[in-house]
Design goal:
The protein has helices at residues 21-38, 51-57, 60-82, 121-133, 145-152, 156-164, 173-193, 198-204, 209-237, 243-250, 256-264, 266-283, and strands at 2-7, 12-19, 92-97, 104-111, 116-118, 167-169. It is of the alpha+beta class. The two termini are 53 Å apart.
């Protein structure tokens, strides 16, 4: 397999992979063999029909689809290892050339972690707190001590907005697109639960497909930028998550099934806990 790689400034990576015709032929034969094992023709028991008879009835396009489903993950993984790539998203795969007797080519677009530049995030949070605390005092409307203390604290959105203002990042388009598609998928699910179509929902909120996608793009960029930034802040501040921290969460499971599910998600739990610890640290600067 031949590989060509193109790295873009925003950390997008374009891989052009050439799959030898011999590999395609071999996999095609393996796919046909599997179909033979599962096919039952008149006069023959399941898996006992002549290969030629089974192959003659197969849809060649479907066979090649199965060939690609088997080959693409393999060749992509090999290319990622060969080129020492560290993808943070699933690749977007396009078959660009497919002629019998010749090598087939696919284009795999993925990306690595974007670079994040942080300014003085602690100073930004402190200034946001000071601004909130220095509200205009109105005679005769002295707030209670509890309210005064509450006013000094930032809400989660206020804190993240302060941090976001210190970040510079260029996000790969494929990363943003995947997050937007996830948000749009959630929107479809939510509207279905309400008994509405997406078009009906958008009409009721005076929006259209173009405006909602633009809105979601801005939301996706903010969310992704903050996620990567919080990881960098955690690294800089030496914030760690212990096994005991994770075990404490797992112990809250209400059933053996839920506990088993949480055990399988230890890495995800560690990510969430570390992010929360980072936010707690920022809230107390």
């Amino acid at each position: 397999m031949n590989t060509q790689i193109k790295r873009l400034e925003d950390k997008t990576i374009e891989l052009t992979l050439s799959i030898p015709w011999e590999d395609i032929q071999k996999t095609y034969s393996e796919v046909v063999d599997d179909f033979v094992k599962e096919t039952e023709l008149p006069g023959f028991r399941k898996g006992k029909a002549p290969r030629e008879a089974v192959e003659a009835k197969l849809d060649k396009n479907k066979v090649y689809e199965e060939v690609m489903q088997r080959l693409i993950p393999k060749v992509y993984s090999e290319a990622v290892e060969k080129e020492k790539i560290h993808p943070v998203v699933m690749p977007k795969i396009t078959l660009t050339e497919a002629k019998e007797g010749s090598a087939w080519k696919i284009l795999a677009i993925t990306c690595e972690r974007p670079e994040i530049t942080l300014a003085d995030y602690k100073k930004a949070v402190s200034e946001a707190k000071a601004t909130k605390a220095n509200k205009i005092w109105v005679p005769g409307q002295e707030p209670a001590k509890e309210e005064q203390e509450k006013d000094k604290k930032l809400s989660l959105d206020e804190l993240l907005t302060a941090v976001f203002g210190t970040i510079k990042a260029t996000l790969p388009a494929i990363l943003v697109d995947q997050e937007v598609n996830h948000l749009l998928s959630d929107l479809v699910d939510q509207t279905k639960k309400l008994g509405l179509t997406v078009e009906q929902y958008l009409s009721s909120t005076n929006r259209n497909a173009e405006s909602i996608r633009k809105e979601y793009e801005e939301q996706a960029k903010r969310t992704l930028t903050l996620e990567f930034a919080l990881e960098d802040i955690a690294d800089k501040e030496g914030i760690l998550v212990s096994d005991d921290d994770i075990d404490t969460i797992i112990k809250t499971a209400k059933s053996p099934e839920e506990k088993a599910s949480l055990e399988k998600q230890r890495y995800y739990l560690a990510t969430i806990l570390r992010r929360q610890k980072t936010i707690d640290m920022l809230a107390n600067v």
